[in-house]
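Table S2 (text version). Query chain:
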Amino acid sequence: MYVLVYGLKNVGLNDYIVSNLKPLIMDSPFNATMIMGILLTILSNLFNNLPAVMIGNLSITEMGLDPHLVQIAYLANVIGSDIGALLTPVGTLATLIWMYILKKHSINISWGKYLRVTFLIIPIGLIVSLISLYFWTTGY
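Corresponding structure-token output:
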């Protein structure tokens, strides 16, 4: 996992994230919440949630943000990598294990069935969680 994360860092993924997202996140807690949460959802479904959260944390550390924005971005990372990662079975190892155990007990849930349900449910849960995080951290 560390080889993957630092390999991506060495080829410039973190620099790309920092240079493109820092201007959008710098002055807006709402943007920090939504952008980092959605970014981590995408990365979690590409690489799995643990490497994705490491990439997100390295990127946030390199952005040099205000401490309050750092806190918000870290929390959005956790939400994106935990809730957003459930969008596809690749997002979390637990989902893959769960699908294997069900199949072993003759309960077949295809990737298509899984994706049909999660593409309806997970985005709603993700957005509600991220908006709730924004309100909680900004005191509304």
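Notes on Table S2: DSSP finds seven helices and no strands in the chain. The mean pLDDT is 92.
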